[in-house]
Amino acid sequence: MDADADLVAAVQRSTDPEVRAAFDRRVRDQAERIRADIRSGRLDTGEFAVGLELEAYAVDDACRLARIPEAVFDRAGCGKELGVHDFEVNSAATPFDAAGVAEQADRIRESVDAATEALRAADLAPVLDAMWTVPPAEGTDAYLGTVEERNGVVVAANMRHHPRYVALDNEILERSGGTITLDVPGATLEHRTILMESLATSIQPHLQVPDADSFPRYFNAALRTMGPVLSLSSNSPFLPADCYDDDPGVVEATPHELRVPVFERSINAGAPRGEGKVRFPADLQRATDVVDRVVADETYAPVLADGEADPDASPYRATLPEYDHKRGVHWRWVRGVVGGQPVGSERDGASLRIEYRPLPTQPTVRDTVALQVLVVGLLRGLVAADHPLTDLPWEAARDCFYDAVDAGPDADLVWVTAAGDRTDDPDVVYDEVFEYARRGLRDAGLAADAIDGYLDPVERRRDGTVPSAWKKARVRESVADGATLSEAISEMQRAYVERAGGETAFVDW
Predict the structure, then answer these.
(1) Which secondary-structure segment (H or E) carries 467?
(2) Domain locations in the chain?
(3) Domain 3-508 class, CATH top level
(4) How many CB atoms lie within 10 A of CB 245?
């Protein structure tokens, strides 16, 4: 078979009812082994560890979105994402201590530098950003909407032609009636592919939790931090410039964190509102709930491993290929990940970690590290102090998150203070956010001056100086000077790209 025929055959296998039934059986069997390992303490590590995933995209010398050649991935050692313009760098886990946090910062910088050099050789540049807004030469509609059918399989031209992505695309198309629709202020996109999901990029801090018994406490605390942390980091208020008519009212109406509805509505197409793969997760009662939820989640695009292990998986995860595949499409804004190899462990070690997914890609490495350190320090500090934040009702935490999506730094925040009082005063909320982040970082062994240095780029955003607000202000100013909305968005984005990725933290732009 040639590559196209192999791709079509792999996608068709994922729709076979017998394949689906066998996949679900294997997931259930593997899940039962994981539950037993959680109960026995096999996934207890006794230590914290931290890591990060960072997604970004490439542009050409005209600041237009660009396809990344295969040679770039080989040279840079970075990962591929759903869109052919996307790349991902991963910072392998390090101990959550002073040396480990410093090593995280070094690794992230080195990985971004390697990607920059590899892209430069292809006359491209990386952009640390949460949504591309200067379209490629053919325009956004053509870029996202060009598809062809191959023996009944829809293949999007600018989607990575990997069976996992194409099978997922076809599964969601089938469930949605053949069209994916995104309707947001000022624009409606309709395409026969989920590729509009590739508009958005994110950073994902990871925190390895020492023992399974305490895992729900960290997870449930994480849910209640999402609104305040997102309000400090929002960075995606605009779609590509050519998606809009000349309506300046879009500047005020568009969400600060458009990335969230783009992802939810692309992947959840056809699902009832409030359901689907991408959503705010429920609280955990016990660590095994993490496993139960993956098993219960709707099966999309199943793949039978048939002896082929993921070369990047830990030895433990390599024994759980179907479960791990299903967990990979169990998208929640916070999720539990089972089986990663703990730092410094024997090769058969395994762990439980929190993957904190609501954050948009930030303008610089320094800003990225600041958010990573804030998240892991805050979760550790809240639990260590037995803080009553988890007394905040789940519905209030969910609503706070989605208000931060809409309003960014002006979100209606909610919190329960250390004294047990509910508050919506942002000064009180942020005071505790940074107080308990410092508590967690001190407990990890970081010195006070190092903590201040890491947190400074994000702590100084408390006055509302966040990337999405900067973008809206630049567009608003250009429109006032006579630019059309599309011209203003493009002008803003070029100014952003000139600054992004540099050594100057965003608050000093």
Answers:
(1) helix 467-480
(2) 3-508
(3) alpha beta
(4) 10
